[in-house]
Design brief:
Layout: H1 6-19, H2 25-43
Length: about 45
């Protein structure tokens, strides 16, 4: 269990922090906008 294994918990935290660089609110907004535009284009 992660709560009992400090080394595993720390490793998962470090991996999670490294993955943060791949995500941002700006990128999420841009990708959502692209999807909405594609949906609207197919409905016309």
């Amino acid at each position: 269990m992660i709560l009992d294994n400090h080394r595993l918990a720390q490793e998962l935290v470090e991996k999670g922090l490294k993955r943060l660089q791949f995500f941002s609110w700006e990128k999420a907004a841009q990708e959502t906008s692209i999807i909405y535009k594609r949906i609207l284009e197919t409905r016309q």
